[in-house]
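stage 2 :: seqdesign
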C-alpha cells in the first residue's frame, strides 16, 4: 500500500472513529440518565396519584359515617315500609354516586340505582364491611369503577355507598400525575400486574388500582418527557452536524492528500528523469508551499549535479585520453623496434658487402612492411574510434533489419557457418542502421576468427520491453582476464588485433541505450549478449 493511500486511510479512521465513539458514549450515558430521572419523576407522580386515591377513599368512608349520623336520613329510612329510591339530595350532599341499604338477607331495602338491584350477596357485603374497596358498579350508563365503603346501620341493616371514578376524577388524577388514566374491565397480563413503573411498547406505565375479583385495572400511561424529546432532537442535530463534519473532514483530507500526492508524483517523475541521466530536469511546484521549497532545492541539486558531471566528464575524458595515449605510444613502439633492427641489419650487410645481401634485404624489407602495415591498421582503428560520431536513431521494424543481415550473409548461412534464429515481428526499435550493421559485422567476424571451423549462432528474442540479441560461437571462449576487463582498450588475444573492436561495438550499443555483456557458454565458446529497448 502506498504512503498516500495509508495516509488517506488514517485520515478516514481519525475522522470517523472518534466522533462515533463520542456520540455513542454521549447517547447511551445521557439516555440512561434521562431514563433514570424520568422513572424517578414518574414514581413521584404515581405517589401523588395514589395519595389522591387514598384521600378519595377516606372521603367516601368519612361521608358514609356522616350519613349514618344524619337524623333526616335515619328518619327517612325508618318510616318507609317498602323498598324505595333514596332521594338525590343525600347523594349530592355526601358526594355519592350510588347508595344501597341492605338487610341481613341481602335484600335491597333502599337504593339510589334505578335498576334497583345489587349484584352482591349478603356474604359479599359482610366481606366489605368497614373497608374501602375498588368495585365494579353498573347503572343505566354501563359499568363503572367505584371507590366503595360498607358500614353497619344497626343489627338489621347495612349501608353500601360509593363514588364513581368518573371523568372529573380522572381529570384530577391526570392533572396531578401528568399522565393519562386508563380504566379497563378485562383479564390482565402479568405485565399489567406489576407494581411501580414499568416499560411498555408505548412508553412508561404504572398500575394505580387493581381489583382482580372485579376484573378492574386502572393504569397511568406517562407521555414522553419533553426533555427526552429535546434530547432526541438535540442528538439528531448533533449527529447530523457530526456527520457533516466527518464528511467535510474526509473530503478535505482527500483533497489535501490528493494535492500532496500530485506534488510527490511530480518530484518522483523528476527523480526518475535524473536517474535516467537527464540533468536538464527542473521541477515546478503547483503552489507556494513546503513543496515549492523542496522543488527549488531539487532543481538546485540537479544543476550542481550537472556541473559536477560536466567536470567529472572532462576529467574522465582527459584521463581516458591520457591512458589511450600511453597505450597507443606503447603499441606504436612495438612495431618500431623490429623496424629499427631490420634497418640496422640491412645497413650493416650493405656496408660489409655480405654475399647474402639480397636475401637479407628481402627479409628486412618484408619485416619493415609487415610492421608498418600493423602500425597502419592500429592507427586506422584508432582514428575510426576517435572520429566515431553519435548514432542517429530512427524507428525501424527490427524483423526487416534482421532480413537484411540474412541477405548480407546468405553464403555463410547456406554453408551452415552462420545460423540466425528470430521469433519477433512487428516490433519497432530506434536504430542507426549503419552502426548496428557495423556492430553485427564486427561481432560475426570475431566469431568466425575465434576458431578455424567456427560456427556462429545468432538468437533474437523479446524479453519484457527489450530485444535480446545473442551472438555465440563454438570457439575457445573468452579468457578470464578478458571477462574481467571486457571493454578495456588495446586488450586483445588476436595476433593482428588492435583491441579496439569490442570498444567500438560497446560504444554503438551505448548510443542505442542498450547493454552489452561478454560471457562464456556452458558447453563451449564465447557469447556476446546485447539488449536494445523497444519503442
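stage 2 :: out
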Amino acid at each position: 500500500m502506498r504512503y498516500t493511500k495509508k495516509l488517506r486511510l488514517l485520515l478516514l479512521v481519525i475522522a470517523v472513529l472518534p466522533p462515533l465513539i463520542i456520540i455513542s458514549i454521549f447517547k447511551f450515558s445521557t439516555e440512561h440518565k434521562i431514563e433514570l430521572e424520568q422513572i424517578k419523576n414518574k414514581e413521584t407522580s404515581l405517589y401523588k396519584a395514589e395519595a389522591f386515591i387514598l384521600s378519595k377513599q377516606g372521603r367516601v368512608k368519612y361521608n358514609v359515617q356522616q350519613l349514618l349520623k344524619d337524623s333526616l336520613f335515619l328518619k327517612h329510612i325508618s318510616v318507609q315500609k317498602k323498598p324505595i329510591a333514596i332521594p338525590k339530595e343525600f347523594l349530592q350532599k355526601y358526594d355519592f354516586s350510588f347508595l344501597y341499604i341492605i338487610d341481613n338477607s341481602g335484600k335491597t331495602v333502599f337504593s339510589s340505582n334505578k335498576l334497583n338491584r345489587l349484584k352482591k350477596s349478603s356474604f359479599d357485603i359482610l366481606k366489605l364491611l368497614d373497608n374501602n374497596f375498588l368495585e365494579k358498579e353498573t347503572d343505566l350508563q354501563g359499568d363503572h369503577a367505584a371507590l366503595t365503603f360498607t358500614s353497619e346501620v344497626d343489627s338489621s341493616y347495612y349501608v353500601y355507598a360509593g363514588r364513581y371514578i368518573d371523568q372529573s376524577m380522572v381529570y384530577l388524577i391526570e392533572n396531578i400525575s401528568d399522565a393519562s388514566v386508563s380504566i379497563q374491565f378485562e383479564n390482565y397480563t402479568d405485565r399489567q400486574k406489576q407494581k411501580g413503573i414499568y416499560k411498555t411498547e408505548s412508553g412508561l406505565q404504572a398500575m394505580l388500582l387493581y381489583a382482580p375479583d372485579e376484573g378492574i385495572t386502572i393504569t397511568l400511561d406517562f407521555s414522553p418527557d419533553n426533555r427526552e424529546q429535546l434530547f432526541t432532537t438535540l442528538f439528531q442535530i448533533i449527529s447530523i452536524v457530526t456527520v457533516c463534519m466527518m464528511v467535510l473532514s474526509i473530503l478535505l483530507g482527500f483533497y489535501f492528500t490528493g494535492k500532496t500526492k500530485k506534488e510527490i508524483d511530480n518530484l518522483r517523475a523528476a527523480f526518475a528523469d535524473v536517474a535516467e541521466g537527464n540533468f536538464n530536469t527542473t521541477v515546478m511546484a503547483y503552489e507556494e508551499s513546503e513543496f515549492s521549497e523542496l522543488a527549488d532545492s531539487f532543481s538546485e541539486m540537479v544543476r550542481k549535479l550537472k556541473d559536477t558531471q560536466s567536470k567529472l566528464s572532462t576529467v574522465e575524458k582527459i584521463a581516458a585520453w591520457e591512458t589511450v595515449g600511453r597505450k597507443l605510444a606503447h603499441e606504436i613502439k612495438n612495431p618500431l623496434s623490429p623496424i629499427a633492427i631490420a634497418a640496422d641489419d640491412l645497413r650493416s650487410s650493405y656496408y660489409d658487402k655480405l654475399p647474402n645481401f639480397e636475401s637479407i634485404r628481402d627479409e628486412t624489407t618484408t619485416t619493415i612492411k609487415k610492421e608498418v602495415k600493423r602500425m597502419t591498421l592500429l592507427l586506422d582503428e584508432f582514428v575510426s574510434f576517435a572520429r566515431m560520431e553519435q548514432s542517429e536513431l530512427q524507428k525501424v521494424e527490427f524483423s526487416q533489419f534482421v532480413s537484411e543481415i540474412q541477405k548480407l550473409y546468405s553464403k555463410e548461412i547456406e554453408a551452415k557457418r552462420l545460423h540466425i534464429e528470430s521469433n519477433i515481428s512487428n516490433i519497432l526499435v530506434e536504430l542507426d542502421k549503419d552502426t548496428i550493421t557495423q556492430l553485427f559485422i564486427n561481432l560475426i567476424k570475431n566469431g568466425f576468427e575465434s576458431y578455424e571451423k567456427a560456427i556462429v549462432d545468432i538468437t533474437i528474442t523479446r524479453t519484457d520491453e527489450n530485444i535480446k540479441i545473442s551472438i555465440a560461437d563454438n570457439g575457445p571462449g573468452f579468457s578470464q582476464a578478458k571477462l574481467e576487463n571486457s571493454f578495456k582498450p588495446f586488450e586483445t588475444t588476436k595476433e593482428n588485433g588492435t583491441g579496439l573492436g569490442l570498444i567500438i561495438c560497446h560504444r554503438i550499443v551505448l548510443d542505442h541505450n542498450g547493454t552489452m555483456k561478454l560471457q562464456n557458454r556452458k558447453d563451449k565458446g564465447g557469447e556476446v549478449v546485447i539488449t536494445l529497448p523497444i519503442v
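stage 3 :: structure notes
- The first strand starts at residue 84 and ends at 85.
- The CA atoms of residues 450 and 494 lie 9 Å apart.
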